[in-house]
Sequence to fold (572 residues):
Amino acid sequence: MHNPLIASLFEELAALLEIQGANAFRVRAYRNAARTLESLSESAADIVATAGRSLTELDGIGQDLADKIKMIVETGALPQLEELRAQVPAGVVQMLRISGLGPKKVATLFHELGLTTLVDLKAACESGRVAELKGFGKKTAQSILDGIAHVEEAGSRVLISIARSAAEAIVSDLAQVAGVSQVSIAGSCRRRQETCGDLDILAIAEDSSLPMDRLERHPLVEKVLARGETKQRVRLRGGIELDLRVVPVESYGAAMQYFTGSKEHNIVIRRRAQERGLKLNEYGLFRGDEYVAGRTEAEVYAAVGLPFIPPELRENRGEIELAEAGSLPQLIELADIQGDLHMHTTATDGAATILEMAEAAKARGLKYIAITDHSKRVTMANGLDATRLRQHWRDIDKVRGQISGIEILCGIECDILEDATMDLDDEVLSEADWVIAVLHYGLKQPREQIMQRLLNAIRNPHVDAIGHPSGRLIGSRPSADIDYTTFLNAAAEHGVMLEINSCPSRLDLDDIQAAAAKSRGIPIVIDTDSHSVNGFDVLTYGVDQARRAGLTKHDVANALSWAEFSRRLKSR
Ligand code: DGT
Ligand code: CA
Ligand code: CA
Fold:
């Protein structure tokens, strides 16, 4: 049970309590506990398991919270949360996914209008009842309507971070079961798609009933939906479903190939088999009734005349042609990343100091970082004006003297304002080592205005990169309306780098636009946007998105050594 998973249960608990109108103190205590767990550098489960230690050592964790965390670690569940889930209608919980609707507003909709489903909410927005509520208004009602459409479109898919941590926890558990010689993740989760509809796990076992029994008892599993000789389907707490398939050793590669997908990729691979007089299915590769191959995926690909294709590329977006020509890219890896150019500190909305962030980055093997706190427009995050920013840079400069082995750039995440001007003037931007320009507000503006803002930022000689260009939050907030051809051409022309923001709810640029950027020779920076020392953990998701885009380390600016990166910055 990883800390972020436990934290998410506390977040949910806090939200449900707030919807019920619970005491604000209690709500805040759970939310703080979630935050503590998220920024904790050791595993809460390890602390629970260590004799003589107690979670009450941690700031803000009293006996009651410690007991609850222990319960979650040991049983995977929290009875109080189960009770609340049963009390608050599922449709009300769904409302929380709508961008701009926090627990307070949801509570009002639930208690004052008695709304319990998205369908009811939609009707109430359209009839004007929502607009009349205190604190809502016409604009909010419209934005709720937009949000409902977006949530409906996203369906019940979950973020890759949630999918992966659940799937990895289950895989490592099943690997312990007697007679299980192999167990792996397949499906969209293995392809590292940004969201997963369900999870797919394959195993080789002497006796399929043993891993199935184990899965049934796994703390993450809520309910067994179906169980047969070779296949079991379960629902996990939180709602995502998982298929476990137990396959024979000689079919493992063929089954991995088949169940990794994507369907579009598989159709082409199967056709190639047919062209060679072979039949390919999840059991193996056959010539008539004769088994030809299927133990490993490499064997399957070789039989259809191809090298092994990395799962992240298996979308039938040109990877088969590249494989055929022997020119598959050597995809970037996590270990290639040398620097991180987007992060926050206590100067704005981060949880750690400059020195703490630098130490954490160094401990992870990074050789350079840019501290990029918010500019003043982001009042919610205590954004910096020119005076505070210059003081902050002096503080960064002091930290440079306190730590060796890592370079620290004096940066800024500067808002591109709604009127297309920059939040800080050119004079102060010109003093920065590194400027990331971003859209935070007015994301719903018409395309023309959005483009005006992005193009102005790109043409500003002090802007080094555009951060999370689309502004989307996966599953809850749609992208700004960007004309990508114009945007990418301008970035290429002005030598502005583009970010892949690694936060699993952003992954922005997405895989398709990152591939389009690569094809224009635009350098990509894969950043974490860390707000705490654990924020660096998300780098893996950004790298995976880059891999899906077919990026190599040569396409990624922060895969350069410090010497090369600083040379490139100076030459801009
Ligand atoms: P998801 O679950 O929607 O995120 O996406 P996937 O790719 O995990 O899809 P899923 O779970 O329905 O099936 C897993 C893989 O199994 C899929 O990527 C390819 C393979 N597969 C499933 N159904 C078919 C099919 O009808 N034809 C072919 N060729 N492959 C299929
Ligand atoms: Ca799936
Ligand atoms: Ca499936």
